[in-house]
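note to self — DONT lose this again. spent like an hour looking for the file last time. sequence + predicted structure for the chain T wanted, 330 res
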Amino acid sequence: MVKATSSRRRALVVVCVALAALTGSVATRAQVPVADGPDPQACDDPTNSVSLFAEKLPNGRIGYGRTPGKAQVPGPTLEMTEGDCLQVTLVNDTDKKLSMHAHGVAYTFASDGTPHNRGCVAPGKAKTYVFNAPAPSTRADGTLDQGSAGYWHYHDHCMGTNHGSGGVSKGLYGALIVRRAGDPQPDRKPVVLVMNQITFNNKVAPRTPMPIVNMGERVEFVVIGHGDLFHTFHLHGHRWADNRSGVVMTPSDTSRIIDNRTVGPADSFGFQVVAGEHVGPGAWMYHCHVQNHSDSGMEGLFVVRTEGGEMTEQTKAAIRRWRRGASHHG
């Protein structure tokens, strides 16, 4: 028998995943080739199922994407609500082994995404990971299980080293949000900013993300740390609560209100702001407040237009000045 080529194996994986999506069924190990045999998972009946495709990108980067040919850095933001169980089928379309390891949620050893638990995915193969988001409960001993709601993340744990250092450095990471019932919802997709070495999302200014929103919109940020350095994330003109959700929900909530937070490798937090509240439209900088990091290009702009979606002349001029000033970063 002739051994299947890498491209033929990839085609088989893509067809299986596509058929599952078209029929509305949940992808299972019987439908998608996996890296190893059946092992107990966090649940038998997932609430939702998604597919991720790991692919090479220009300039040596590697990313996760929801469909073939659509990989990105950071990878797609995954969302759950406490009580959900999410099944993720990772298809490896690179020439290196890699994985998906999630923070903040519950899983068995079958979904740990690490080499010692056989969680790596070989080139041309696929693997199914299952994650459970526990809700708050009281244990038998009377202590509280606080649940899993929070701003988390996922990343590779296999490429380059047993800790995925090679994959993380190239862009194999993404945000994982677990919401609690009743949490406020943003008006737009979350803005994900990963502080990886001296970059945001593996880019330096003026190529860093520039979210553009309208006055009064509720905007959600997710900030994640990776690499070997510690940073401080600062957002101009806006504040948030230093708690699980980044929002003050009741008068009795005494959470500190901050606009700057220290971020270490694998730290993650999130918050919501009302765009332009108390400050108006403008080009509001975000950056690492470690001075030589920001001087090296760890900065970007959060652009707030008018309520009608118009960008003021002052904002346009500020963006031009910022781009000129940041152009020396490359």
